[in-house]
Amino acid sequence: MFFDRAILAISLVLSSGEIASATDSVRTTINDHAAIVADTELWIDAEPKAVWAILTDVPKWTEWLPEFVSARLDGPLAPGTTLYWEPQGQKIVSRLVVVEPPHRLIWNGSGGAVHVWELASVRNGTMLRNAESIEQWTFPEASGEQSKFLRETLGVWNARLAARVKERRKTE
Fold first, then answer.
1. CB 19 within 8 A of CB 87
2. What does the pLDDT look like over 63-99, one tens digit per residue?
3. CA 71, CA 65: separation in Å to the nearest integer?
4. What is the DSSP letter of 140?
5. What residue ranges do the domains of the chain occupy?
6. Contact status, residue 115 vs residue 106, Cβ threshold 8 Å
7. What's the whole-model pTM score?
């Protein structure tokens, strides 16, 4: 239940405005003082290259993120490319701003949203960082609750990504 509410609330903010264009000020770090902030980490028993391969195969997100109806890029995995994704039926449009294989993937969205995926080689595996901030939020009294929901949501995504990487390693 929390997951549905979090996705719906955050999706409404992200889908309500224009996408961040390549000419807008590009944000490459989350804003720790934004209305909604979540920052998560998870160690994954695989090299960053293996994690990156799953993370950046956008059309296959629906296979390991079952709440996603669709996900696609309008071009190559490169800065300036538009990302269309649809969790829980909420259409979201974002713009890739940093693509540094196999270490950083960052996109910007409406509402001052910044989503950061970072992969670092640590202890024969990968330390995954998955973080997001949303600056513009119309219900400030609910910001703390939405930050908590977003943190839980990102934690679920991290666990699913790790499980997908583990599953892929078994078949190789």
1. no
2. 999 999 999 999 999 999 999 999 988 999 999 999 9
3. 10
4. G
5. 2-171
6. yes
7. 0.85
